[in-house]
Structure formats: structure tokens, C-alpha cells
Task: inverse folding
């Protein structure tokens, strides 16, 4: 690395079903390769951890090679390696960590084991504009639903709330299954909702009752909603009626979107922070984006949505966290660090 150039960091992400390898130079995105094992999980209706881990093993080397080709670099150009240490599926994380340790040891490079959730927020710095802090961040995917208050990416990240049962994407996946739709559920519910009336069925908005305000103001729950859809399907079946699938899909989606955005904006207001950042695969939902745009504008909140390929799980966001740590002069993670499937949001880098 020349004295003036920002560090080139290769980031590896394997917390769920995407094998992501990204390369950044400081905050500039050079490569973002993703190999997904999603189709292998389709017939199970959700991610199967052992299948994901095996798929990461197979995809790792070709994905690293492809990222280097995209960035027009060789391993000689890499200054540091970053890898997701958690949270995520333990077996899947271990594959990424093993690969990162092998690479770092062989090339004598510093290695940073970093937090996946912080990565989702850091992804925004790669979009070309500076990330304004503090911000509220809503991260919604198949594996997590987290509401964060981010004051400083390098360590001051507070978890305000998270799901107490299913993740938002998981709710889409499970509900799609109930409706006989394919996996992943988000896109298939979107397709089924076309022409449906989002107000046709008043599905429950989890943890929004006045009694929930004390303990669960910024937590989420989607299992009651899923059960409510199941009751709907059963009732229609018992009555021998055709299920109004478009109305059910549209009303379900509306309930999820409504509660996500309402709680995120409540957090903005309660903390006096007029900024909201979205991340995670559920951001692909056009209705979520539309409602977010509309309600943020009405509330005077500036909304940031990174490009979709930086919202879904990817290695570039992990590389971005690594580049930030290198730039700050932080020491790398100790050689023996392990996967931490429940890593807390405020731990940017694992140090033991
Ligand atoms: O961040 P992501 O790619 O990775 C994991 O969680 O592994 O998110 C995937 C999740 C799945 O649960 C999928 O159903 C959901 O994001 N998703 C959507 C949409 N597209 C993907 N959810 C709602 N609407 C969508 N259009
Ligand atoms: Zn994620």
C-alpha cells in the first residue's frame, strides 16, 4: 500500500445463504461478487444451515477469484482481510472465517472479524455519499430484524429493538408457504399481491398495543400475523371457498411494512434523529420502499436506501467495515477468534 492510497480490503460474508466476496479501496467499491445457495433451500421453504455451509465451501474459492478479476487486482494488492464473525448461522460463519484465516495467514495480512449488522450500515458509505450520523437504521432480512441507533460506526451502535420471533423476511417466507407460493417468499408475495386490496383484511400489527410500549416499543413480532394468515386459509378451506390470495398477500405485506416503518419512525422521533437508513434483503420490497419514502417525507426524516446489491448480504459491506478499522489504525482481531452466532450489535470487531 502506498502511503497516500486508502487500504485495499477484501471482505468475506457467509452468515446465511450468500457467499459474498467484496473488495474496497477505502470507501470506493471495487468488486462485489455473490454466489447464492438460495435455490438449494427452495424445496425446504427456508435456509437449511448445513446446506448453506456446504455451499459456502464450494463457492468460496471461485467467488474470491471472480472478485479479484472484477477489481482487476491480484492477492498481492490486498492490504487486509475482513470477515463476518457474527451474528449468523454458526456453521456458515465458520466456513467464511476458516477461508479468511487461511488467506490472511498465507499472505501475512491483518485479519478483522467484524459484525454483520454494522456491515449493513457501513454498506451505505460505498454508495458514494458520506453517511450522516447519528442515524436510525432498520435492518430487515431473512435472518434479522433489527432497529439500531448508530452514533459512530466504529463502536457506538445501540440495539434499540429486534424481532422476538420471526425475522421480517422469514415471515414473508413462511406466509408464502402457507399460501402455496414459492420460496423466497418476498418476491412471490409481491407478485401475488398485484391487484389485491391492502385494506381488505385488518391483520394484526405485532407489539403495537399501548401495553407493549413499555417493554417492546422497538421490538417486532410477526408470529401472530403468520398465525392469523393461517387461520384465514383454514377458514376458507373449511367453508369450501376460494382464498382471495391477492387480498391476503396485499394485506399481509401491508401489515409487515406498516409496523416496520411506524416503529422506525417512532425511534427517529423519540431520539430526535431525522435520519433513517434501510438495509437487508426485504428492502427489495417495493411497497416497503414506497411507504418509507412517503412517511419519511411527511415526518421530515431523510431516508437513505443503498442500492439493492449493497442491501442484501454481501462481502463489500464487510470489506467497508474492515477498511474503516484499518484507516483508524485499529489492531486486527486475535488469530484464534471464533464465530459468534449471537454477536451483539455494539461489537464492531471481535477482539477475543
Ligand atoms: O438480506 P437477504 O438477502 O439475506 C438473508 O436474510 O439471508 O434477505 C433475504 C430475505 C428473504 O427472507 C426474502 O424473502 C426477503 O429477503 N425478500 C423480500 C423481498 N425480496 C427478498 N421480502 C419482501 N419483499 C421482497 N420483494
Ligand atoms: Zn444480513
Result:
Amino acid at each position: 500500500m502506498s502511503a497516500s492510497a486508502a487500504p485495499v480490503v477484501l471482505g468475506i460474508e457467509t452468515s446465511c445463504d450468500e457467499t459474498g466476496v467484496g473488495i474496497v479501496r477505502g470507501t470506493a467499491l471495487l468488486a462485489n461478487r455473490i454466489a447464492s445457495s438460495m435455490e438449494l433451500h427452495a424445496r425446504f421453504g427456508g435456509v437449511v444451515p448445513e446446506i448453506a455451509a456446504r455451499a459456502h465451501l464450494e463457492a468460496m474459492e471461485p467467488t474470491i477469484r471472480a472478485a479479484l478479476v472484477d477489481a482487476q487486482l491480484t492477492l498481492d494488492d490486498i492490504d487486509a482481510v475482513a470477515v463476518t464473525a457474527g451474528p449468523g448461522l454458526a456453521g456458515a460463519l465458520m466456513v467464511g472465517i476458516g477461508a479468511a484465516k487461511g488467506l490472511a495467514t498465507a499472505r501475512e495480512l491483518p485479519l478483522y472479524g467484524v459484525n454483520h449488522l454494522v456491515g449493513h450500515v457501513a454498506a451505505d458509505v460505498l454508495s458514494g455519499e458520506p453517511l450522516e450520523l447519528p442515524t436510525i437504521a432498520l435492518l430487515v432480512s431473512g435472518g434479522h430484524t433489527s432497529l439500531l441507533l448508530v452514533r459512530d460506526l466504529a463502536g457506538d451502535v445501540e440495539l434499540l429493538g429486534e424481532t422476538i420471533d420471526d425475522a421480517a423476511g422469514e415471515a414473508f417466507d413462511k406466509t408464502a408457504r402457507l399460501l402455496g407460493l414459492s420460496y423466497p417468499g418476498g418476491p412471490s408475495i409481491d407478485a401475488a399481491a398485484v391487484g389485491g386490496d391492502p385494506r381488505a383484511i385488518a391483520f394484526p400489527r405485532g407489539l403495537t398495543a399501548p401495553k407493549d410500549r413499555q417493554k417492546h416499543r422497538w421490538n417486532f413480532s410477526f408470529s401472530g400475523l403468520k398465525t392469523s394468515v393461517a387461520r384465514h386459509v383454514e377458514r376458507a378451506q373449511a367453508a369450501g371457498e376460494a382464498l382471495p390470495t391477492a387480498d391476503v398477500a396485499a394485506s399481509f405485506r401491508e401489515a409487515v411494512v406498516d409496523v416496520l416503518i411506524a416503529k422506525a419512525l417512532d425511534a427517529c422521533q423519540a431520539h430526535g434523529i431525522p435520519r433513517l437508513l434501510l438495509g437487508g434483503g426485504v428492502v427489495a420490497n417495493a411497497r416497503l420502499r414506497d411507504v418509507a419514502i412517503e412517511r419519511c417525507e411527511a415526518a421530515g426524516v431523510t431516508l437513505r436506501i443503498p442500492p439493492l446489491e449493497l442491501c442484501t448480504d454481501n462481502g463489500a459491506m464487510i470489506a467497508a467495515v474492515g477498511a474503516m478499522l484499518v484507516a483508524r489504525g485499529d489492531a486486527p482481531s486475535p488469530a484464534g477468534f471464533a464465530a459468534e452466532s449471537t454477536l451483539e450489535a455494539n461489537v464492531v470487531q471481535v477482539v477475543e
Residues 116, 120, 141, 143-144, 280, 313 surround zinc ion (ligand 2) (CB under 6 Å).
